[in-house]
Design a protein that fits this description.
Layout (H helix, E strand, L loop, with lengths): L2 H12 L15 E5 L7 H13 L3 E5 L2 H10 L4 E3 L15 H9 L7 E4 L7 H16 L4 E3 L4 H6 L10 E3 L3 H10 L12 H9 L4 E4 L4 E4 L4 E4 L11 H20 L15 H24 L5 H5 L2 H9 L12
Parallel strand pairs: 1-2, 1-4, 2-3, 4-5, 5-6, 6-7
Antiparallel strand pairs: 7-8, 8-9
Pfam family, one: Carb_kinase
Protein name: ATP-dependent (S)-NAD(P)H-hydrate dehydratase
GO biological process, one term: nicotinamide nucleotide metabolic process
Length: 330
């Protein structure tokens, strides 16, 4: 890896909680993935399991009852809440997004981070429900990772996230282009590789954007990080879900760091850089998981193969983080 990437990873490591006897359940991360519908059950599972495998204490999935019944069979380790509803499956009643979202919003005090989008679909009731949840999370300054069909909300109403400094968007190439066009942004006309992500993040008022590609560019419009770690060469569906879950866990650890749950040694990280570092950490875990999985599976690689490499990727990038110190060892 380049010296620049190694330097950023050293900072990321500082915000990873050591494993201490004094911690109790929930302090090292309570993450909820909102997604999962009649047609899509894999994406929220991959996101929630990446978060759990990386090390968050409690990993939730908030989905429709139809999806919940399936996701529960994937793993008993996930807490599944069938609180979402789809319009097409509620013919006998007019489902109210205000009522549906209320049950989810009631859960927010129990959570640290939301991931919105994996397996969400474009059902109007689902979309309107999560828009209300995002608004409620924003009032609490709760970090939110938006991906996949949740990005439709940004296309429809950029003000939902504009200026939301705790929000992270993870668009693929097509989604990035659609958001760019919806904001009527212009070609920067220069050769700087990070120009577009910086323009988009600035246009959204400081939202952090992860522009995925041969390198991952991470920017809030002011500070930009470049992740040039090698990834796998297979682009199977679902790999982006590992990214959202991994970023979410680092965001949960950000809270633990800010709450000073352990003695910090060395330079103290600035609060305004922690969102970007969390995004970089999740990006690094995903790229390394992809690389390791591709070495084993080659062109047969599937999203589930990344899930099984998350912990190994963590150890390879950061080593064990134990004891009373958070000093980096990279």
């Amino acid at each position: 890896m380049t010296a620049s990437t190694q330097g950023v990873l050293s900072k990321v490591r500082q915000m990873i909680p050591p494993m201490l006897d004094k911690f109790h359940k929930g302090q090292l991360g309570r993450v909820a993935v909102i997604g999962g519908s009649q047609d899509y059950t894999g994406a929220p599972y991959f996101s929630a399991m990446a978060s759990a495998k990386l090390g968050c204490d409690m990993s939730h999935v908030i989905c429709t009852p139809e999806a919940g019944a399936v996701i529960k069979t994937y793993s008993p380790n996930l807490m599944v809440h069938p609180l979402m509803r789809q319009s097409l499956l509620n013919d006998d009643e007019v489902a109210d997004p205000e009522k549906v979202s209320a049950g989810i919003i009631d859960m927010l005090p129990r959570l640290h981070v939301l991931v919105v989008g994996p397996g969400l679909g474009r059902d109007p009731l689902m979309q309107e429900t999560v828009a209300r949840v995002i608004q409620a999370a924003r009032k609490k300054k709760m970090p939110v990772v938006l991906d996949a069909d949740a990005l439709q909300l940004v296309l429809k109403d950029p003000s939902l996230v504009k200026g939301y400094k705790e929000a992270i968007l993870t668009p693929n190439v097509v989604e990035f282009g659609r958001i760019w066009d919806s904001l009527d942004l212009k070609d920067p006309g220069n050769k700087k590789e990070t120009a577009e992500v910086e323009i988009l993040a600035k246009a959204l008022g400081g939202v952090t954007v992860i522009q995925k590609g041969g390198k991952d560019f991470i920017s809030n419009g002011e500070t930009t990080l470049v992740n040039d770690l090698e990834g796998g060469k297979k682009r199977s569906g679902g790999q982006g879900d590992t990214l959202t879950g991994s970023v979410a866990t680092f965001l949960a650890w950000r809270k633990a760091y800010l709450d000073k749950l352990w003695d910090i040694h060395g330079d103290v990280l600035k609060e305004d850089e922690l969102i970007g570092l969390a995004a970089f950490g999740g990006s690094a875990i995903t790229r390394e998981s992809s690389r390791l999985a591709f070495l084993k599976r080659g062109r047969s690689l599937q999203a589930s193969d990344l899930t099984e490499e998350v912990h190994i990727a963590f150890l390879g990038l950061f080593g064990e983080v134990d004891g009373e110190t958070s000093e980096h060892k990279l």
